[in-house]
Structure formats: C-alpha cells, structure tokens
Amino acid sequence: MAGLEYISGFGNEFSSEDPRCPGSLPEGQNSPQVCPYGLYSEQLSGSAFTCPRPANKRSWLYRILPSVKHKPFTLVPCGDLTENWDEVEPDPNQLRWLPFTIPKS
C-alpha cells in the first residue's frame, strides 16, 4: 500500500482536504465569514456539557448544504426492534430553526 500517510499522536487535532478542491479547508480559522467554494461551516460536538472545556472533542465540517436543509423526518417501520416506540412519537426535525407558532390569546 504505497502512498499511504499515517497520522500519529494522542489527543492531537487533524485535518483532511479533498485533493480535488485545493484550498477548501480554511487556514488559521475554523468558521470564516465566507468559506471557499461556497461551502457552509458547521461545528459538530458531542461533549459540550459532559466534560471539562479543554477535553471537548469536536469536528468542523464544511458542507455543500447546511444541515438545516434536511428533509422532514418520516417514520420507518421498526422491523426487529423490541422496544415499544408507539408510546412516544419521535420528532427529530429542526425545532430550533422552525419554532412552533405561538397561539394568539
């Protein structure tokens, strides 16, 4: 397997860029006001409130479309799942970007 490069180290931060789009990864910043190639920058973090700030792990993604442009959730048959999911109807849609309407009183 000639031509492979390995990344070594523990706790380091790494980056990768598609060779077909040189310059798509911003240098010296994570969230530029204007991303190259018209991309959208998004931070993905799974540990924002579960560990000390220096130990947070995160990923910066540069997407063609922002994640809020996803299609609405549709229910799929459960198949072999054994839990009773009928008690609560899941709603993983973007509530932050499409809030419920406030009724007028």
Automatic annotation (TrEMBL):
Biological processes per GO annotation: L-phenylalanine catabolic process; tyrosine metabolic process
Pathway: Amino-acid degradation; L-phenylalanine degradation; acetoacetate and fumarate from L-phenylalanine: step 4/6
Domain Homogentisate 1,2-dioxygenase N-terminal: 5-104
Group of enzyme by EC: oxidoreductase
Keywords: Dioxygenase, Iron, Metal-binding, Oxidoreductase
One of the Pfam families matching this protein, by short name: HgmA_N
InterPro entries, per database record: HgmA_N, Homogentis_dOase, RmlC_Cupin_sf
Gene Ontology molecular function, alphabetical: homogentisate 1,2-dioxygenase activity; metal ion binding
Disordered: region residues: 1-28
Annotated GO CC locations: cytoplasm
EC number(s) on file: 1.13.11.5
Name of the protein this chain belongs to: Homogentisate 1,2-dioxygenase
UniProt organism field: Iconisemion striatum
Taxonomic placement: Eukaryota, Metazoa, Chordata, Craniata, Vertebrata
